[in-house]
Write a structure and sequence with these properties.
Helix 1 packs parallel to helix 7. This protein is of the alpha+beta class. Strands 8, 11, 12, 13, 14, 15, 16 and 17 form an eight-stranded antiparallel beta sheet that branches. A hairpin with a 2-residue loop joins strand 14 and strand 15. The longest helix has 24 residues.
């Protein structure tokens, strides 16, 4: 059990640091960001008390592959991955909106629909839909990006009216979102998967809209297995899926949803390793390549620091 759960670097030229739930971001100079994908794991807006070996590597390398596979659609922030758990890129001013796009009625959208909701984020939904049914065409259901707590649903019209994003920039983000999702679906189909829904984040650099953050990872996306999808849908059965939903379900089965009075169940080494194995399975299923574990003997943080310092020395 060797997992990276905390970092505290001071890189040459470092001007700031931000720690999210699972990633630590270091700012170097005016326009470089070093994003370290830790092995922390979160669910229900809380960080679990034990790290998951290789999780950071899995997410970082999936995101890197999809960023590289979509550069013809839009510019993105990635410059290099000097370590399996690190992406170095262009520092962008992030928009306070997450662009969620859905191809199938499932998850929270289905729960709302089942309770009578026929409009999500200003998008009207037809009557008579069933769980896991494809939308006539993918729908975009943006949320505000909260610094703390839950993100909130919001419509395109509200985003523009409130000045959160300009009409011009929003329409660029909307166009990129549809094209990125179509590309993600194409790539997933080659692996026998259906990209069900996902989120994209965008920022601005030198006056241009850039794709930022992670892309098409199992933490930011939901995948179904294509084989058996139609049969399961017709029978009303649960779909076989690739996402981190299995972690949430494990917590729910142990009466933890981060409600008042809920007690976090014990995360044993055995369970943490079983989650690591599932993340590796996710990687191989989504990417279609054998996972090559990074060196975890010794100090992971030192390995990362050395790789980043070497890159900065040559490039920054």
């Amino acid at each position: 059990m060797n997992a990276l759960t905390k970092t505290n670097y001071n890189f040459p030229g470092q001007t700031g640091k931000y720690c999210g739930k699972t990633r630590d971001c270091y700012f170097v100079g005016d326009d470089i960001m070093v994003m370290v994908a830790s092995d922390r794991i979160s669910a229900f807006d809380v960080i679990l008390p034990k790290g998951i070996p290789f999780k950071g590597q899995v997410l970082n390398q999936i995101a890197a592959k999809f960023l590289d596979a979509t550069t013809d659609i839009c510019p993105n922030w990635k410059l290099a991955c000097p370590d399996p758990q690190v992406t170095i890129g262009v520092k962008c001013e992030g928009f306070k909106v997450e662009m969620i796009i859905r191809g199938i009625l499932t998850g929270s959208a289905w729960r709302d629909y089942k309770n009578g909701c026929r409009e999500i984020c200003g998008v009207k939904l037809p009557d008579g839909m069933r769980e896991n049914e494809r939308f006539p065409e993918p729908i975009i259901t943006p949320t505000t990006k909260a610094d703390e707590g839950h993100d909130l649903n919001i419509s395109k019209e509200e985003i523009i009216a409130q000045g959160i994003v300009s009409k011009e920039d929003y329409e660029v983000m909307e166009d990129y979102t549809r094209k990125l999702f179509a590309r993600g679906q194409e790539i997933a189909a080659k692996q026998g998967l259906i990209l069900v829904d996902t989120k994209y984040e965008f920022g601005k650099h030198d006056g241009k809209v850039y794709l930022i953050d992670e892309v098409h990872t199992p933490d930011s996306s939901r995948y179904f297995y294509a084989e058996g999808y139609e049969e399961k849908f017709e029978k009303g059965e649960a779909q076989k899926q690739l996402s981190k939903e299995f972690v949430r379900q494990w917590l729910i089965d142990r009466n933890f949803m981060n409600r008042e009075g809920d007690v976090m169940p014990e995360i044993t080494d055995e369970y943490a390793m079983s989650v690591a194995e599932r993340y590796i399975e996710l990687y191989e299923g989504i990417v279609g390549e054998k996972f090559q574990p990074a060196q975890t003997e010794g100090d992971i943080a030192t390995r990362i620091e050395k790789a980043v310092n070497e890159w900065l020395k040559e490039n920054a």
